[in-house]
Amino acid sequence: QQKVQQSPESLIVPEGGMASLNCTFSDRNSQYFWWYRQHSGEGPKALMSIFSNGDKKEGRFTAHLNKASLYVSLHIKDSQPSDSALYFCAVTSSSFSKLVFGQGTSLSVVP
Amino acid sequence: DMKVTQMPRYLIKRMGENVLLECGQDMSHETMYWYRQDPGLGLQLIYISYDVDSNSEGDIPKGYRVSRKKREHFSLILDSAKTNQTSVYFCASSLGDAEQFFGPGTRLTVL
User: Fold this and answer.
1) Is the pLDDT of residue B15 over 80?
2) Which tops the pLDDT comparison, A2 or A104?
């Protein structure tokens, strides 16, 4: 059964700094990888997806995928206080519609 | 307006009472989901529905059942609620294995 682990559990970065969030998964046949962000009191919202090995950049956010190493990461450049949230890594299981979520990384961006 | 709605937003029940959580979406998505979120555990899939009357167990279905009689509406039922079902429940919808759109959540307390 797919297992998804995130690190660190929590992260504090200064405004304007770089935040790096890590995620490992256990199923080598995983196909789709998502990052979701959840602000306090709200439901999660998809931030970005990555399906191929390498980097994918969307504005200040860059996702990196290495399927051989069972590893995906998210890097947030020029972090803003509005980036403070809970970030989830989510990976498809054998059924593509089913996502397995990690336990989350709590990011705080301090002025 | 692409939206997932959940009712009620907050609910307090006594142990042994029945609970009905309701979810609606206006995007004509065929796939809908129920998750629960507990601190440190991320989002755990309770049930997935692939369309009307086509429901499948997720990772933690015990103690829950679902009903989907219309494509835009998905209900989660707890028959005889237990204290360990105190949690925040999220409904989501998607077009196949694309991005999942989440509702705002229902905070359920079982006393």
Assistant:
1) yes
2) A104
Residues of A in contact with B59 (CB under 8 A): 100
pLDDT at A47 over 70: yes
Portion 9-68 of B in contact with A at CB < 8 A? 31, 35, 40-45, 48, 50, 58-59
State the DSSP string of A37-92: EE-TTS--EEEEEE-SSEEEEETTEEEEEETTTTEEEEEESS--GGG-EEEEEEEE
Exposure letters B73-100 (e unless 16+ CB within 10 A, then b): ebbbebeebeeebbbbbbbbbbeeeebb
Provide mean pLDDT across the span B26-48: 94
Residues of chain B with C-beta less than 8 angstroms from the C-beta of A44: 43, 90, 102
Residue A74 token pair: 């998210």
**A32: pLDDT strictly greater than 80:** yes
Question: How many other β-carbons are positioned within 10 Å of the β-carbon of residue A110?
Answer: 11
Helix (H, G, I), strand (E, B) or coil at B71: coil
Give every CB contact of residue B106 below 8 A, 6+ residues apart in sequence. Answer: B6, B7, B8, B9, B10, B11, B21, B88, B89, B90
> Is B5 in a helix, a strand, or coil?
strand
CA A26 centroid distance within chain: 16
Share of chain A above pLDDT 90, in %: 86
Q: Which residues contact B39 (CB under 8 A, 6 or more apart)?
A: none
